[in-house]
Amino acid sequence: MKIRQDFPHRIREIENQWIMLADGTRLAARIWLPEDAETTPVPAILEYLPYRKRDGTAVRDELTHPYFAGHGYASVRVDMRGNGESDGLMEDEYAPQEHADALEVIDWIATQPWCDGKLGMMGISWGGFNGLQVAALRPAPLKAIITLCSTDDRYADDIHYKGGNMLLENLGWAATMLSFSAAVPDPLLVGERWREMWKHRLDNMPLLAETWLNHQHRDDYWKHGSINENYGDIEAAVYMISGWGDSYINTIPRMMENLSCPKKALLGPWMHKYPHFAIPDPAIGFLQEALRWWDYWLKDVDTGIMDEPPCTFYLQDGVPPAPKYLERPGQWVRIHGWPAPADEVETITLNLGDHGLESGGWLSADRLIASPLTAGSLQGEYIPLWFGADFPPDQRRDDGLSLTFDSAPYTDGLDILGQPTLSATLTSSQDCGQLHVRLCDVAPSGESALITYGTLNLNLRDDPGTITPPVPGEPMNVRLPLDLIGYRLPKGHRLRVALSSASFPLVWSPQKRADLTLKAGSPTLELPLSKVDYIPVPFEPAESATPCRVETLRAGQPRRTISEDVGSGEVTVTIEDDMGDVRFADHGLRVEQKAKEIYTSHPTDATRTRADIEWHYRASRDDGEGRFAVDVTSRYHLHCDETIFYLTAEQIAHEGKTLVSQKSWTREIPRTAI
Prior knowledge:
Blueprint: E1 2-3, E2 11-20, E3 26-34, E4 42-49, H1 58-70, E5 74-79, H2 96-110, E6 115-124, H3 126-135, E7 142-148, E8 161-162, E9 165-166, H4 169-180, H5 187-190, H6 194-203, H7 208-213, H8 220-223, E10 237-243, H9 251-258, E11 263-268, H10 286-298, E12 311-317, E13 330-335, E14 345-353, E15 356-358, E16 367-369, H11 396-399, E17 403-406, E18 414-418, E19 421-428, E20 434-442, E21 448-457, E22 476-481, E23 485-489, E24 494-500, E25 516-518, E26 524-530, E27 543-544, E28 550-554, E29 559-564, E30 571-584, E31 590-601, E32 610-621, E33 628-640, E34 644-655, E35 658-670
Parallel strand pairs: 1-27, 4-5, 4-6, 6-7, 7-10, 10-11, 11-12, 12-23
Antiparallel strand pairs: 2-3, 3-5, 8-9, 12-13, 14-15, 14-26, 16-25, 17-24, 18-23, 19-22, 19-25, 19-26, 20-21, 20-24, 28-30, 29-30, 30-31, 31-32, 32-33, 33-34, 34-35
């Protein structure tokens, strides 16, 4: 990545700016401006997050926001209520208070002497979500947004309930936020009131997993903040971006189809990071591309960005499976809208039949899908995020626990682009059940690489808002779209469809082991294939502003391990999310964060499924003004029986050796849909 310092505008930074809200709450902002902005006002770009501008996102902020300021924008990074140095409490994600505060922040920015009244919002993940949600409220200054790795449906396409099954990330992210929300305000910015602010947050810490577990199907709670309830609410221009290595991809075809505002889409090979520094490579000149967008919508400069085909996709080459990729070779294509025109993407139909996966095949007899509840340990992380062994390795062990159908080798390969879709008739042995479908690339050597997958809770098979338990032995017609994918199957490789009745720890086990039967007939896989020509790389090389000065005291060591108790059959997946120990050179803040997630399942007994997560957070300043030292340990535990989830949590906070807060929770939550 090229580091830029030769910008058209000299930059002035406001390290900490208080934004006073109507109720007296102060939000903390960090602002980068062109030096002459107060005499020559400019448009503004807002990023609005709970992740602490002082340390949590400082490294990426300094790569990005000064770059925009250097090109003639006021770039504003605001910590949400109850986070970082901002006052107040945060009770939940995407709450009405969060949106109301955002509207006040936008009005404040638009009326500053350095702002010309026009605004854009940009963000990834949480910031991508609330960018869409705030755009749906139509604040007058907001003309355009860039939303990365985000969703239009908070129930079906977030970290909660994929296909109606509860993702283990539902608990994992609740535990992450329990720790993140306990981070301390920096005394250098808020003074001696930091202790009062910190204690207030600790004393009022929400138990997010309880809230999310109390809404197991798509109800009004999830409809709030889901823009697919009314796509027409958004009038600002929307540029939506994600990567095949991320989990937030299916929202892009839905938004391209349903948004009526000006829109563009971009999907590259990346994990859950901004594309100018994400892996796998190739990274792109995302900041230059963003400037083309901002210049067009906020400065009325015709950059040509809206003359291009609206969808730009990277078709990544099939490569040997690995738990981590630094690079994914491939080719770029452009599509004239989504759903794609028939001459650009065509769909072929393959049957799951007696002779494997083939056109026109037939399944002459029922086939059993009888996976142990431990199947799925090689699925990989739902969200590759912390640069560890997050990607799915060789799938052959999980394939062996599944019902599989292989194609003949494709002599010329295939270019897959879209959402493969399985249609089949099933029965369940119980009044519950899960169907998991993986599409794999099988090399001549036998290696099986995951291309894409889908998962379905059979209790919610027809409608994620309506609970309809299976009747044991009664046929059910299911149609399951797999995740959107762009993939080049190499010449001579086969396709494999693998069907399983469990996938742990991707999703929580069903109420009891439920074997499935794939009924005889013509189960099908609809396979979308790209027919467009490849194009040269359509982006400039990656650039950024000068990186943040950070001293690494201990490098992070993320790990993912799998173990099996041969005697009991239990399988345990352990994920260590370790971000290391660093000191920020500019202000001396030292931060260490690490977590261990332990997920265990039993092959036949669903009541032995359990999860234990522990986070450690330490922050300090060793010398000079604002000296302090705090540490917080946060824990979550979840287990179940057929009817109840048993949830416990604990948080212990110290300043030095003094106990500041010790809080525990014990909850029993009925199982209603999962």
